[in-house]
Prior knowledge:
- By secondary structure, the chain is of the alpha/beta class.
- It has a domain at 192-343: Nucleotidyltransferase, domain 5 (2-Layer Sandwich), CATH 3.30.420.
- 37% of the residues lie in helices and 30% in strands.
- The protein has a five-stranded mixed sheet, sandwiched between helices.
- It is globular, with a radius of gyration of 23 Å.
- The chain starts with a strand and ends with a helix.
- 40% of the residues are buried.
- The model is unreliable at 346-351, 371-406 and 414-419 (pLDDT under 50).
Amino acid sequence: MDYKEIYMSIEISEYALKGVVAEYFNSKINILAAHEIVLSKDAQPAEITDKLKDLKAEIASKLGYPIENTILIVPSLYCKKFKDQVRVDILNENKVVTKEDVALGIKELTSKNDTNDDFVVNVCIDKYMAYGFGYVSNPVGLEARNIEVEASIYTIPSIIAYPLIKIVEAAGFNIVDVCLDIIALQNFALTNQASNYGAVIVDLNSTNTKLAYFKNNTLKATSIIEIGGKHITKDIALCAKIDYEKAESFKQKYVNLDVDNINDIIIYSSYDEVNDEQLKITQAFISQVAKARIEELVSLINNELIRYEISQDELVYFCSGGSLINGLEKIISKNLQFNPIIVKKEFIGARYSGFQKCLGSIINEAKFSRIRGEIKLYVNKIEYNEAINLVSKNNLLYNKGDNVSDDFIKRLVSYIFNN
């Protein structure tokens, strides 16, 4: 049977907004419209809302019609996970499992974690058991007295989720579901076989590098390395004595980590009046600066993979914007002690690899929606003000240690408190 559905997904990061509208058809995904808007490094929530309105208008112009319903990608930085199971009695006269029965089971699972501090983000079904049939991948249509649903449930603090939701809704979007960024990447980069057998995702993003180890189709371990694309940019700016914006532009245009095989061309020159000298920046110079930072990062990744105790035949998938750096494959192949794969656009037919998380969240939504039908959002989404009042401003911003260290998140949360 053909299965076709259209979805929209939005990702908000510290440096950019990304939106994708895609058609999911017979387990394949086709981008209908996509757009990215760069944010200033100190973007305030009001500016983000305005940019989201621009994003919405631009996607509508590319698509030819507006779409308001969207999936919001949320950061897994503060993710918690627990496993639980529930039994649901089949109450209809024919004793046939329906989507509504499955939906009820999932609702009961999430309600077990319905606390004031946690927001249920993803419910990943580990297995179903229908009475008389044992474990099944999809119980809908089976005759049974009851079903058991066993799931992994992922949450983040409400104080992180609500600011993101409020800002997106203020731009006129209707959020029908949310998806953890690392679950989105799992759906984008990993096959079901890889998730079951064992694989690690390395999310190379602008702010940091996230690792997630999946085995038996469940998230076994995560960690964060506080090195991302912005650190490479800062290194280039410092070493080349140029401003951050120019360094970012040069990084994107000229950095090639295969420094032994590039021409040492001059890409910029200026006169330093203080030291009375002509400054010249070459492609080889900024590439060498970037290479030193990437080699440090790969060494730290090695340490994390050893700590995970993964086997030598489990694969390590490098994803997101950082995976696009020229020459990365050579550095990883030389320095990583495990088997790497760099996930590129040909894995899914996308026009631009930077939309990996948006596409992964759409895949996750499409796979799950076949079971749960029209019910999209199983989260404890209570009134914003009521939720925010449960947590004091001081506890959030100052007493959480390193857990809330991101200035971008702090700005969003402060916006909720002050509006």
